[in-house]
Amino acid sequence: MAINLGNLRSYADINQRVVTSVIGTPYPSTPTGSWGAGWFDIGALSDKGVDESVNQNETKVWIWQGGQLGRILRSQFEHPFTIEAAEENAVSLGLARPNVSVATTGATAEVQTVTISGTGTAGTWTYALPGYGTATGLAFNIATAALATAISALLPGSLTVTVSGTAGTSYAVTFPTALGNVPQAQVTQNITGATGIANATTTPGVSGTNRSVVAPYSGMNLRQFGFDFTDGVVNLRYIVTNAEAVLSGNISRNANGIAVVPLTINPYYDASIGGFFIDLNNDPARGQGLYA
Fold it and tell me: What are the C-alpha distances in Å from 172 to residues 114, 133, 150, 185, 201?
């Protein structure tokens, strides 16, 4: 195969991400499809990125007559990934400390109220929660339960909101106490008949005190993982359907930089896919056939 500098890949795009879910959560079938419900970002990573490595045991077989190397017998394969999470959040610390229960006391739930002025008859509006995501295409008169579902989908883990009020007029969104103080959501509308839309914090949230007991050994942490890499229009995605994440070094908190949580993700052989992980990509060079 001839040299083609167009095949040089620089996977250094802001869209890089590592996500995780419980085993069995549906995963995308393309390198650009949405991860969908149940998948959660580990968060920002350090500039070390993602290291993919291969480990195996080797037994060297030497020829008796002459002492030449005749064969290398390879066995006990593993294919780990190592990362450094640059966010101390529920996902990264949950991977480092599996099965640790957190109890929060003294927290106050935040309440934000969305008010739609005028009398809407058609159209939609958007609810953008900074740091979490955006719910789009909300009907002008969306039911309170449906709005609660849409906003809850933006939150990590199993956290959910409750919504009360009058459909099409006013919605009081109560966030879980675990989130403490929540950034104020930004709302925009394209509603026929509406004269405006606004969101205000009516009850500020207060972060409480979290208490958890970290045991010497917290049990297995079997999960699914996804890795996204982007180089312009070339997308590379790994889907690991059966793996365990473990804390693989020191959690650093010092004056030299931000805190990082070093993790090793160990894929286990999954008979349902016939290997350690799935490689999805739209790289035209790789589509010409491996080892051509």
Answer: 6, 19, 14, 12, 10
The residue with tokens 């509308």 is 189
Q: Strand pairing of 234-247 and 257-267?
A: antiparallel
Is the pTM higher than 0.90? The answer reads no
- Closest C-alpha to 15, from 24, 96, 7, 35: 35
Residues 75/76/77/82 CA torsion (nearest 10 deg): -140
Domain extents for the chain?
13-99+212-288, 104-208
Distance CA 152, CA 174 (A): 11
CA-based nearest residue to 114, from 141, 133, 132? 141
The tens digit of pLDDT for each residue in 73-121 reads 999 999 999 999 998 888 999 999 888 888 888 889 999 999 999 999 9
Q: In this structure, which amino acid lies at residue 157?
A: G
Write out the H or E segment, with its range, that includes residue 149: helix 144-152
146 — phi, psi (to 5°)? -70, -40
